[in-house]
Amino acid sequence: ACAPTSTPLAPPARDTASAPIPPSITEPASPVPTAAVTDFPNPESYQWKVVAGGFDRPLDIQHAGDGSGRLFVVEQGGLIRILQNGQIHEPPFLDISERVDDAGDEQGLLGLAFHPDFVSNGFFYVNYTEQGGDTVIARFTATGNTADPNSEARLLGVQQPFPNHNGGGLAFGPDGYLYIGLGDGGSGGD
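RESULT FIELD:
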C-alpha cells in the first residue's frame, strides 16, 4: 500500500455551464468558475513512499473510526488484514476465503464498511461474491483485532448473471444508512 505524504490539490470544480437548470433551482448571482482539464492534480506533485507490502490483491482500505490508528486492508481472495504502525497483524482480522469466489478478475471480497457505532457494537459489513458468483452483503462482529467468521448475518443476496462488472463499494452515509455499489451485471456491450 502506498500513501501520499503531501496534501493533494483541491479537486477540479464540476462543469455545470452546459447543464440545463431545473425550473425549481435558481442560477447563482455570479457564475461559478469552472476548471479546465489541465487543472487536474499532477501526480508528480506528490511524494509517495511504501507503507507496507506483502498483500495479495489488495483492493480496499478502510479505518474503523475508533481512533486506534488501524487500517483494514481487503484482499480479493477473502482476507481482511490489519495494518498498524507499518506492521501487518497476524492472524488476519477476517478470513472468509472458503466462502469467496474470486475466480474472475472482478469477483472476490470487494468491499468493507464499519458501522458508525463500531466501537460499541463491533459490527462491520462486507460485499463479496460467494461460490457460484452471486453477490452477498453480510454483517460480521469483531472483538479487538479479530472478527468471528461464524458471526455472519447475510443481509442481501443478488444473483449475478456474469462474473464481471461486480461493484463492491460499501459506505455509511451521513444519514446512517449503508450504501452499496453492486455493478451492472456484467457481460459486454454496455
